[in-house]
From TrEMBL:
This is TetR/AcrR family transcriptional regulator. Keywords: DNA-binding, Transcription, Transcription regulation. Gene3D superfamilies: Tetracycline Repressor, domain 2. The keyword Oxidoreductase does not apply. Pfam families: TetR_N (PF00440). Residues 15-75 form the HTH tetR-type domain. Residues 38-57 bind DNA. The lineage of its organism: Bacteria, Bacillati, Actinomycetota, Actinomycetes, Streptosporangiales.
Length: 207
């Protein structure tokens, strides 16, 4: 027997049931986070029977991985475009990349924090990320392009520089996760602190 179509799909829309389930799970992650998210809860929100999910996904972990990826993409779209190589100033562009990365990590922290006890979901999420898609890869690509354009030192160690900026964003995540235990929040928050990080990186890669 074919799975019962969700009420949201009965009006002849082009969205498939699989896409509808992913979109529903992504919405629930946005509203409630991932902690305690169940197959039954997703199915009810999607307007389908519990078993319908298994007609479109191998298991709950696969659905959550796709929903988590959709959530990250939604946050990235909301944050806007990143600077292109060759435009503006290196300092201003790196600042934009760092602010974007900090905002991205802060926004997706609740979703990832709720999955720390579900490593299978995180592993499948990682498998969905294509090279060049995520913010880190785009940052490295930007720095390489600027080096090729001659706007950075010809021997600029762009990969280590990118790791420094990524590390700052990861520190933000760890600081927020540990804050409840009394650990201080050491991640840069003010414009002056962000500018200081960018200046430190540029001292190592600038012309």
């Amino acid at each position: 027997m074919a799975p019962r179509r969700a009420a949201a799909l009965r009006d002849g829309g082009e969205q498939s049931l699989r896409a509808h389930l992913i979109a529903t799970a992504e919405r629930l992650i946005s509203e409630r986070g991932t902690a305690g998210l169940t197959v039954r809860g997703i199915a009810r929100a999607a307007g389908v029977a519990d078993g319908v999910l298994y007609n479109h996904f191998a298991d709950k972990e696969e659905l959550l991985a796709h929903a988590l990826r959709a959530r990250v993409r939604a946050v990235e779209r909301a944050l806007g475009e990143l600077p292109e190589p060759g435009g503006g100033t290196i300092e201003g562009n790196l600042r934009a990349y760092l602010v974007h990365g900090l905002d991205l990590h802060r926004a997706i922290l609740p979703a990832f924090a709720g999955l720390l006890a579900q490593p299978e979901v995180l592993a499948r999420f990682a498998d969905l990320v294509r090279p060049g898609d995520d913010w880190r890869d785009r940052l490295i690509g930007y720095l390489r392009a600027e080096r090729e354009l001659g706007r950075l030192a010809p021997d600029a160690p762009v990969e280590p520089a990118a790791r420094m900026l990524v590390g700052v964003c990861h520190e933000t995540v760890l600081s927020q996760l540990l804050r409840h235990a009394g650990a201080p929040d050491t991640a840069p928050a003010s414009p002056d602190e962000i500018d200081a990080v960018v200046a430190a990186v540029l001292r190592g890669i600038g012309r």
